[in-house]
Amino acid sequence: MEAKAFLRYCRITPRKVQIVLDMIRNQDLAKAVAILKYTPKAACEPLLKLVNSAAANAENNFNMDKNSLYVAECFVTPGPTLKRIRPRAQGRAYRVLKRTCHITVVLKEREA
Questions:
Q1: Residue 8 region, left (φ>0) first, then alpha (ψ -120 to 50), else beta?
Q2: Strand-pair category, 101-109 with 69-78
Q3: Which of 19, 85, 86, 104 has its CA 20 to 30 A from that of 2?
Q4: Do residues 106 and 74 touch, judged by C-beta distance below 8 A?
Q5: How far is CA 100 from CA 20, 69, 103, 104, in A?
Q6: CB 97 within 8 A of CB 86
Q7: CATH no. for residue 97?
Q8: Whole domain around residue 33: which residue ranges?
Q9: Helices (H), 13-80
Q10: pLDDT surpasses 90 at 111
Q11: What is the pTM of this model?
């Protein structure tokens, strides 16, 4: 049995999220939450909410034991890119790409 949680259209680059996801992959739930709480990265705040949401899904929807959960899968895919214009000198304009991403977290129970 597995519990999933998704975060769509998160306004942070997938590259920044991937660094944090690599730290919590295959970790126990308590350890993953601790890593996310005390890591000074911008991606940690939405990821912490997402992991807690997946844990709540596991507990309420599938009656899984919260103490035996671990992060089985977590990945990020790029979402749509918002294109913006930045004014520059002498009437020029530079394009600014504001990237978004879709994040997926899957929790499973560890076999005893």
A1: beta
A2: antiparallel
A3: 19
A4: yes
A5: 16, 28, 10, 14
A6: no
A7: 3.90.470.10
A8: 2-109
A9: 14-24, 29-38, 44-62
A10: no
A11: 0.91
